[in-house]
Amino acid sequence: MKDKILPLDYDQYSLEELTEKANRIIESLEKESDLNNSVVSYQELLKLNNIIEKKFYKNFKSIGEETNKKIKEINKKNEKTA
Description:
Layout: H1 15-31, H2 39-81
């Protein structure tokens, strides 16, 4: 799925908020008996999933960078005391 077709307003939401919205869509899809009425909701869910994955990856990458930074700081401190 291309980024350009994703709604920009979802960028302002947290992972928790996006997950909550996705869960609400899933609940409504589970209750729907006519699949023809579900197409738009399903497409919205796919878009949300893509956005959640990207946000999760960004957060994961950020945590990894912060961890590496802290490890380097600790190593520098250990080198000075040794």
